[in-house]
Amino acid sequence: GAAGPRYHRVLLKLSGEVFGGGGFGVDPDVVHSIAAQIADVVRSGSQVAIVVGGGNFFRGAELQHRGMDRARSDYMGMLGTVMNCLALQDFLEKEGIDTRVQTAITMGQVAEPYIPRRAIRHLEKGRVVIFGAGAGMPYFSTDTASAQRALEIGAQVLLMAKAVDGVYDDDPRTNPDAKRYATVSYQEVLHKGLKVADATAFSLCQDNLLPIIVFNLLEHGNIARVVEGERIGTLVSN
Ligand code: UDP
């Protein structure tokens, strides 16, 4: 598609589902391939911060549904995200990229605590910052954490990497005539009930005019394409 400007600083949200290759736990081959893509982006000069989900381990709402206490389940979910962070850190460092993991739940032996100004310094030095444990709060999601982190570190855009190539007017798996939006406004997303991120995450973006790009992570090189301003996926903005 048409080229927009290159993004200087981005927040990339990676769902846990992708890390598991569809199953429980981490699929090292998948993480390796994602890390290689991210390394290319960093070498090209853009600053990359990442929020990693944890759906490949535990989702609080699902454990609650099966009888567990919700807040405790959510903490299990958050701890799962940290394992994904460490896997991604490992493969990024193997690519020769400096990284720091910062967690919203303090665990000094494993990662730095979340310190926004320090995160910005890392980015300025060309390090990838990987944010773990979501927002550190039960009842929140890693989508919401990614919107909040993007705003706090001054990212220009929230990149939602998914297993589909954008936002559609209907489910493309069941409706072959479903059309992908190249661009869509926040208003339209709400009005038409389109699925971009959960409501809390979405309202943070809308209230602060943070653009979101939804794109397909499974096509190799797409992260670099998005960061370079190529118009793939769906851009959600004002
Ligand atoms: N979680 C939470 N607070 C947060 C972020 C995550 O309680 O700030 C928990 C929640 O239980 C969630 C789980 O961690 O289900 C995994 O995160 P998420 O579902 O957002 O991961 P993804 O769907 O992106 O893989």
Identify the notable features of this structure and list them briefly.
single chain; 238 residues; alpha/beta; Carbamate kinase; nine-stranded mixed beta sheet; 9 helices; 9 strands; binds uridine-5'-diphosphate; ATP binding
- Sheet/helix structural class: alpha/beta
State the domain count: 1
**Low-confidence segments, ≥5 residues, pLDDT <50?**
none
Widest sheet: strand ordering: 4-3-5-2-1-6-8-9-7
Number of helical regions? 9
CATH architecture: 3-Layer(aba) Sandwich
State the shape.
globular
The percentage of residues in β strands lies in 15-25%
CATH level-four homologous superfamily name? Acetylglutamate kinase-like
Helix/strand order, N-terminal first: EHHEHHEEHEHEEHHEHE
Attached small molecules: uridine-5'-diphosphate
* CATH structural fold name: Carbamate kinase
CATH top level assignment: Alpha Beta
Assembly form of the protein: single chain
Structural Rg: 17 Å
Number of strands: 9
- The helix fraction, in percent, is 25-40%
Task: Tell me about the largest β-sheet.
Answer: 9 strands, mixed
Your description of this structure?
The chain is 39% helix and 18% strand. The chain is globular. The longest helix has 25 residues, at 70-94. With 238 residues, the chain is an alpha/beta fold. The chain has helices spanning 16-19, 28-43, 60-65, 70-94, 116-124, 142-152, 186-192, 199-207, 222-227; strands at residues 9-14, 47-52, 99-103, 112-113, 128-132, 157-162, 183-185, 212-216, 234-237. Helix 2 (28-43) crosses helix 4 (70-94) and helix 6 (142-152) packs parallel to helix 8 (199-207). The chain has a single domain (9-237), classed as Carbamate kinase (3-Layer(aba) Sandwich), CATH 3.40.1160. The mean pLDDT is 96. Strands 4-3-5-2-1-6-8-9-7 form a 9-stranded mixed β-sheet, sandwiched between helices. Residues 15-17, 53-55, 59-61, 74, 77-78, 81, 134-135, 137-138, 140-143, 145 line the site of uridine-5'-diphosphate (UDP).
